[in-house]
């Protein structure tokens, strides 16, 4: 399909489709031709580029102005205040609970378009907490479309943005400004906005969010980007935090620590308060014996033991097993050894290994992975670090990375003395590390079978 751009000149849309999918995860089929054509034509008309070809290469090179002008029409920015009111009742209840327990709340409107969703969260916070929302509630609104973020920051809306909202409620939180309505300072104080591309791996990622609204966004994102996005949302959620999708959004493939929940008129996801409890684990042997019937895979730091077997004669990795004593080399009582302070010399790889193990034991897969990577950056031959990184990657749902770490660990252990402790692994032997490798391989195989 070709778009017309200028008198009699047709532009092929396919390269734009491919580029928008690659850079922003935006899926577009033939039914989106009109929108895509409008995006190209309007960006060129606004001076982003002299021709569609030039526009294509500017957007491909990340030119900010061309990209913004293109995204302005290539994305669907439909939104309004208190859209799907039942979703906000779930938030109101969370706010009441937070107030009762004296906790603050961090909320994120991911794919906020022109900001009505973020201001709606602020409005609900004011309704529930009154003036004490100041200082207790923080709301972040982000969108890939910089023009939308600019509109969100302005917070100035036409009456159509308030369809379904009573005039009384609207007037309480938005001041009339000629024919439009501007968000009151009481809302604006709670909200800040930023441009953020949800599918860019290098995007600065929010964390410790109690509530994430990502509604009517993932339905525009290509299916193959969703597993990674789900993994990153999981990282963004505080323990017990929730993610609310739109009613027509695809199911997000979360790992076992995020469960689906239902409230009246609202289906949402909730991260567990704690890492999932360790169910009985299957045998560490790589034999093809059937695995136990479990719907969710066990956490990958669970002991490598079979319920039908006596405890394995091999010591397990102590710090990967909740409740077991710390690795002897780790400082006793310190769950996670402190990070090097600024300016101090880099700690040896051993410190990173200890921190990785401690984080794994505490259920912090993201941090465990980061520390294991740091250890590997110092010494790539540390089989124990590869195994911890594999365990964290399995937990985070990154099967490809987990498989890579397992392969590396196996290569390193191939020529090693298996009954001897592995380097920097305390008294954990190469054989134990190999048993974990086998366990992870089986988990990854099971996941592939299920997919
Ligand atoms: C239909 S609006 C949803 C607005 C609001 N969440 C709601 O439900 O009312 C979809 C928004 O998702 C944004 N979006 C699409 N792809 C995105 C991406 N890769 N990263 C961030 N935002 C994205 C679009 O720019 C658009 O503003």
What this model shows, in words?
The chain has 451 residues and is an alpha/beta fold. It folds into three domains: 2-74, no CATH class; 85-271, Vaccinia Virus protein VP39 (Rossmann fold, 3-Layer(aba) Sandwich), CATH 3.40.50; 318-333 and 346-450, Tetratricopeptide repeat domain (Serine Threonine Protein Phosphatase 5, Tetratricopeptide repeat, Alpha Horseshoe). The chain is 41% helix and 14% strand. It is built from 15 helices and twelve strands. Helix 2 (33-45) packs antiparallel against helix 4, helix 11 runs parallel beside helix 13 (383-395) and helix 12 (365-378) runs antiparallel to helix 13. Residues 280-316, 318-335 and 339-346 have low confidence and may be disordered. The protein binds S-adenosylmethionine (SAM). The site of S-adenosylmethionine has 26 residues, from loops. S-adenosylmethionine (SAM) is lined by residues 24-26, 75-79, 83, 111-113, 117, 143-145, 148, 197-199, 215-217, 220-221, 246.
